[in-house]
Design a protein that fits this description.
This protein is α+β, with helices and mostly antiparallel strands and 137 residues long. Helix content is 21%, strand content 36%. It is built from three helices and six strands, in the order αββββααββ.
Length: 137
């Protein structure tokens, strides 16, 4: 398999792109072929410094975000995921909406066998919030 077959349609990987998308609607999640589609295996992606905006106060919400999935035919490329997740810094959304939107967008991009997105949000008013959304094919 040559390099162009290994990285089809990857526009961010290997480039020094620094312009982040303005919102998740503007971001592009890129994928590449799963080289082991015959096997179930978990991929875990941790984002310990995720931020989004509170839709009421406009203040940042901080979270530890974890994405776990069993791929089917494709996997998400991590640089495009990084840009996608960073785009939430500009989008006012409740924490529950953020986690569910991430799951919906990743499922649409990768069509995994199983995916779980968990957000552990920092304490506000003495209450910490965790949200877990799951997709099973």
């Amino acid at each position: 398999m040559n390099e162009s077959e290994e990285r089809p349609n990857l526009t961010l990987l290997g480039r020094s792109e620094s312009r982040l998308p303005a919102s998740p609607d503007d971001a592009k999640l890129e994928i590449f072929p799963n080289r082991n589609p015959e096997r179930d295996y978990w991929i875990t992606l941790d984002c310990p410094e995720f931020t989004s905006l509170c839709p009421v106060t406009g203040q940042p919400d901080f979270a530890k975000l974890q994405i776990r999935y069993i791929p089917d035919a494709s996997c998400v490329e991590t640089k495009s995921l990084k840009f996608y997740l960073a785009s939430f810094r500009n989008r006012p959304s409740f924490n529950e909406e953020v986690v569910n939107r991430i799951l919906t967008d990743l499922v649409a991009a990768t069509d995994p066998r199983h995916m779980i997105v968990t957000g552990q949000f920092g304490s506000r008013g003495g209450i910490a919030l965790s949200v877990e959304a799951e997709h099973v094919k």
